[in-house]
């Protein structure tokens, strides 16, 4: 993120500043995750082309399907737009019945969202430093087939995914696709008017209101608490709607029957990470949660005092959670962060804390796989890339994120324990296990 982005987003997420092959049988050795290289950014006649990038392939045994769903909460006024009802877009990712060919692969973003993300969206809260007009986000493809029939095989655990402050729901696709390829149904949520942009089926593009709120008079703590409350309400509403969708005819063939709403987990990055923890605190339907570098404390001037962003830090949790920190200045283990430390001390459920050496706040997002490719094509500077993702090897970072998240979810939603989270692992020397 840019300094401006972290001025609001990282406050929320990684502490206070302002803003695989896993899935193989237990005991199997994970193969390296290769982060694919894109074109070199120059056409045959020497003219500079728009940069593009490729997501790493999912590592599980299943092909992947995806479908987008528009939801309206008839009982809630939108906190960001009081003259409107709350509307959301979600995507559901799931094991598909047949393989996906190149021509069938779903777009990474809707065309209008891709155009905005490359322009005004990139200049907003979650600015990752790529030059507007230099990246063809509409050309980026996922590994999923749109509206594919679901793979038979009975009910599957459901995982919710919440992105960081200012980020769209697509910005965790590499992790989400991988979980779906391992047999999970994953529901990604766009938090409307906070996400950089949300494209609705009627053609409306809801751009983030956050950039217009930035300024010296902004009460960042109040903003973050409002974001937290709105996101938790969004999450609980989505869970309610999944109950209805399960029995409707609006989903692709077999998908409703695949939803096991008795086994629900949640994963989130940054603001999405603290959303996952607080939503689990507030809603017993969520059995386990992963927080990817989302801090729970807005610091004071001394870096320690300040205010907690939510009640979960002081109340603790009685169900399993995993904290995954980075080497950003405002992150690290629970020992170093007041919010995480309070959560740890007040919790009675199983818990673990790991930190990825060499990483930065963006390392747990698609920034880790996509931005290095854009840097090779000149669409982002080496210094900006280092600020966003650190100096950890991209393939290793993607592999570690996928492996640790899947290990946690397998253990608590499927009862399959590969013991990766019992302590330090020789397979992942770059992951520091915090005791």
From TrEMBL:
The keyword Signal applies. GO terms for molecular function: 1-alkyl-2-acetylglycerophosphocholine esterase activity. It comes from the Bacteria. Keywords: Hydrolase, Lipid degradation, Lipid metabolism, Signal. InterPro entries: AB_hydrolase_fold. The keyword Signal applies. This is Alpha/beta hydrolase family protein. One of its GO terms (biological process) is lipid catabolic process. Residues 1-30 form the signal peptide.
């Amino acid at each position: 993120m840019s300094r401006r982005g972290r001025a609001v987003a990282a406050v929320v997420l990684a502490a206070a500043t302002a803003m695989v092959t896993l899935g193989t049988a237990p005991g199997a050795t994970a193969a390296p995750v290769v982060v694919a290289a894109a074109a070199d950014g120059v056409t045959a006649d020497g003219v500079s082309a728009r940069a593009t990038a490729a997501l790493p392939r999912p590592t599980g045994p299943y092909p992947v399907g995806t479908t987008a769903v528009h939801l309206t909460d008839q009982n809630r006024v939108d906190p960001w737009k009081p003259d409107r009802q709350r509307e959301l877009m979600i995507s559901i990712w799931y094991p598909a019945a047949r393989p996906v060919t190149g021509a069938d692969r779903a777009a990474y973003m809707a065309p209008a969202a891709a155009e905005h993300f490359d322009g005004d969206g990139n200049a907003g809260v979650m600015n990752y430093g790529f030059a507007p007009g230099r990246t063809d986000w509409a050309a980026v493809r996922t590994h999923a087939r749109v509206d594919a029939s679901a793979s038979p095989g009975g009910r599957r655990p459901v995982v919710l995914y919440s992105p960081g402050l200012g980020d769209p729901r697509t910005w965790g696709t590499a992790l989400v696709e991988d979980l779906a390829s391992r047999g999970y149904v994953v529901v990604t949520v766009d938090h409307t008017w906070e996400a950089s942009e949300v494209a609705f089926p009627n053609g409306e593009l809801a751009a983030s209101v956050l950039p217009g709120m930035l300024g010296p008079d902004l009460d960042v703590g109040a903003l973050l608490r409002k974001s937290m409350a709105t996101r938790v309400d969004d999450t609980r509403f989505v869970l309610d709607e999944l109950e209805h969708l399960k029995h409707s005819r609006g989903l692709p063939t077999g998908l409703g029957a695949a939803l096991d709403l008795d086994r629900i987990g949640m994963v989130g990055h940054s603001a999405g990470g603290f959303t996952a923890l607080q939503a689990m605190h507030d809603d017993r339907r969520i059995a386990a949660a992963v927080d990817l570098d989302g801090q729970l404390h807005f610091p004071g001037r001394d870096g320690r005092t300040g205010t907690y962003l939510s009640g979960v830090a002081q109340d603790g949790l009685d169900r399993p959670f995993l904290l995954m920190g980075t080497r950003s200045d405002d992150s690290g283990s629970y020992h170093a962060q007041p919010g995480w430390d309070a959560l740890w001390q007040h919790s009675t459920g199983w818990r673990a804390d790991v930190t990825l050496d060499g990483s930065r706040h963006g390392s747990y997002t698609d920034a880790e796989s996509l931005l290095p490719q854009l840097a090779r094509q000149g669409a982002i500077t080496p210094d900006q890339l280092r600020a966003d993702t650190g100096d950890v090897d991209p393939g290793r970072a993607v592999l570690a994120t996928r492996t640790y998240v899947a290990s946690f979810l397998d253990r608590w939603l499927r009862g399959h324990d590969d013991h990766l989270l019992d302590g330090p692992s020789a397979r992942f020397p770059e992951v520091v296990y915090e005791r």
